[in-house]
From TrEMBL, chain A:
The keyword Nucleotide-binding does not apply. This is Transketolase. Pfam families: Transketolase_N (PF00456). It comes from Candidatus Vogelbacteria bacterium RIFOXYD1_FULL_46_19. The keyword Transferase does not apply. InterPro entries: THDP-binding, Transketolase_N. Keywords: Thiamine pyrophosphate. Residues 14-272 form the Transketolase N-terminal domain. Its cofactor is thiamine diphosphate.
Length: 289, 331
């Protein structure tokens, strides 16, 4: 990874804002879909595709590319918007989200959009697939491989048993080429995760399964990049980055409310949101700044 | 009469016919597949010895993943391996895989279109003493409703060996169903096998009925055919080792010729091999069909032989069903 300069942070901030605008734009066209998760994960997706990942939009099937598995497929509006802004397909195509015949299916389908590494939607199976990819990489390139497998998970899907089967396996095989990022936004469809099914102490859980654990502010590019750098340096253990994010981040009316998990903005709400994002363009910094 | 081109075991109707578990053939086939193609890998959920994946695990320890008692993880890790170019064989008991992890198989393997091979061992009531919790009699239904899934039920250990090798090269998702008990080895090394092709094992110029069977029921069907022939009732017998894709042309041809069909399977009648045959025949060549299989019940403890008899899957049941379907034809 290259050094994260102030200029690059500014560029990433601007890109994340553009991605958020694209998310709102595509949800307005689709009139269904998820709002809170995609907005909340925009900074992490931006950091991954514009700074961290080894990838090449001109060669999507490049064998040596890093792999990214989005386990909670329902936040795909941010995935699609990021891929478009990164150059995988025209940004204008984002307007086709969830439409009949669109490559941008309601939940990601690899056959429709070949730039995806997997299809997802039903929760809890992404980490296992990422484990399989990490194991395959080990079989082919041994411990010296410099390719990384990134798994993006929601916090709500940690309630799935399948996830913990994978957590055990990654610990057993010491998959240090596997970097997992959890979107710890504290909400799920029915309410706050602490009410639906408490997950804490989450860091201790992963630690006890022989993982390396990092906790970060998921809207701070320096912290995101530093955490991934640390994960890449860890040997013999998989790393989980627990990224604390604000669901709906970037649009005040949507922030921190679980009601925005699974619905799109209305015409008016969308217009307001776009205006808010545009006026803040280039000025959004982490909560902690 | 026996179809000579099938090169079946010359001791087919001999009481001393060789016996070997179908799962043993799978174990051998997987080792050969591993030797031929280094992309072949294997996973198991704590049943290495009894699924017969052990030989592969010992020979290729770096290409074997032990996931523990975690069938959801078994198939989803396999999916990840497959997206990286591997050809994973993921083994457990059919009751647990696909019994417990159907959605993961649907989404991460079939929807995702990756070449994972699900190995369902200990299928059917012939599992025996372990009882109903361990006797998968719904697995074919679960697997054959999935788009892209190939479903194979070998008739004996040699066929399981050939099927395993063929699946390693098939390029798509597949399910192979294995039985625990020793059963007659009805084919030989020289017997033809091709995925998706129904094999006509027993033939007649003017058959009064066609018996279609899969798994170890093929042997019982041949025994029934021989007895019926001696009684002057001519039948033909198809080994339908590939339930999906179904060899429509062969089944239609022989069903039309006989004008009546009996299906025999160690599986629920609902949704099984007979159902697949009937769905197709109802549209393409309607003839009376009698279905032998489990009639909406669970299994129980016992010896394989007595259980098959209890659930009306014995030779005499096949003979009765043939006579019944012939009567229906004449109404």
């Amino acid at each position: 990874m290259e050094t994260l300069t102030d200029e690059k942070i500014e560029l990433l901030t601007e890109t994340a804002n553009n991605i958020r605008q694209s998310i709102i734009g595509s949800l307005l066209e689709a009139r269904s879909g998820h709002t809170a998760g995609p907005l909340g994960m925009s900074d992490i997706f931006t950091a991954l595709y514009f700074h961290i990942l080894r990838h090449d939009p001109a060669r999507p099937d490049w064998p040596d590319r890093d792999r990214l598995v989005l386990s909670n497929g329902h936040i795909c509006p941010v995935y699609y918007a990021t891929l478009a802004h990164a150059g995988y397909f025209p940004v204008a195509e984002l307007k086709t989200l969830r439409r009949f015949g669109s490559r941008l299916q309601g939940h990601p389908h690899r056959e429709f959009l070949p730039y995806l590494e997997t299809s997802s939607g039903p929760l809890g199976s992404g980490l296992s697939q990422a484990c399989g990819m990490a194991l395959a990489d080990r079989m082919d390139h041994g411990l010296t491989s410099d390719r990384y497998i990134y798994a993006l998970l929601s916090d709500g899907e940690l309630e799935e048993g399948n996830t913990w089967e994978a957590v055990m396996l990654a610990g057993k095989y010491g998959l240090s080429n596997l970097i997992t990022i959890i979107d710890r936004n504290g909400i799920q469809i029915d309410g706050f995760t602490k009410d639906i099914m408490p997950l804490e102490p989450l860091a201790e859980k992963f630690d006890s399964f022989n993982w390396h654990v990092v906790e970060i502010d998921g809207h701070n590019f320096e912290e995101i990049v530093a955490a991934v750098g640390e994960a890449q340096a860890v040997f013999g253990r998989p790393t989980v980055i627990i990224a604390h994010t604000i669901p709906g981040r970037g649009v005040k009316a949507f922030e921190r409310q679980y009601e925005w998990h699974g619905k799109p903005p209305s015409e008016e709400e969308g217009k307001k949101a776009l205006a808010e994002l545009r006026t803040l363009n280039g000025k959004i910094k982490s909560e902690n700044d | 009469m026996i179809n000579k081109t099938q090169k079946l075991n010359p001791k087919l109707f001999d009481l001393q016919i060789e016996q070997e578990a179908i799962r043993d053939g799978f174990g051998r086939g997987l080792v050969t597949a591993g030797e031929t193609n280094e992309q072949v890998v294997a996973l198991c959920a704590d049943l290495t010895e009894s699924t017969r994946i052990e030989a592969f695990a010992k020979k290729f320890p770096d290409r074997f993943i032990q996931v523990g008692v975690a069938e959801q993880n078994l198939v989803t890790v396999a999916s990840g391996l497959a997206t990286m170019g591997k050809i994973p064989f993921a083994a457990s008991y059919a009751m647990f895989s696909p019994g417990r992890n159907w959605e993961q198989i649907r989404t991460t393997i079939c929807y995702n279109n990756v070449p994972v091979k699900i190995v369902g061992a200990h299928a059917g009531v012939s599992v025996g003493p372990d009882g109903g919790t361990h006797q998968a009699i719904e697995d074919m239904a679960l697997m054959r409703v999935l788009p892209r899934m190939t479903v194979v039920v070998p008739a004996d250990s040699l066929e399981a060996e050939k099927a395993t090798l063929a699946l390693a090269d098939s390029g798509g998702p597949a399910y192979i169903r294995l039985a625990r008990n020793k059963s007659a080895v009805i084919t030989t090394e020289a017997s033809p096998f091709e995925l998706g092709r129904a094999e006509v094992l027993f033939d007649s110029d003017e058959p009064a009925a066609l018996i279609i069977a899969c798994g170890q029921m093929v042997y019982f069907s041949l025994l029934a055919a021989k007895k019926l022939e001696a009684e002057g009732v001519a039948v033909s017998v198809i080994n339908l080792h590939t339930i999906k894709p179904l060899d429509k042309a062969t089944v239609i041809k022989y069903a039309r010729q006989a004008g009546a069909v009996v299906t025999v399977e160690e599986h629920q009648v609902a949704g099984g091999m007979g159902g697949a045959v009937a769905e197709m025949l109802a549209a393409e060549a309607p003839v009376p069909v009698e279905f032998l299989g489990i009639q909406d019940q669970f299994g129980q403890s016992g010896e394989p032989g007595e259980l098959l008899e209890h659930y009306s899957l014995g030779v005499k049941d096949i003979i009765m069903a043939v006579k019944k379907v012939i009567e229906r034809k004449n109404v």
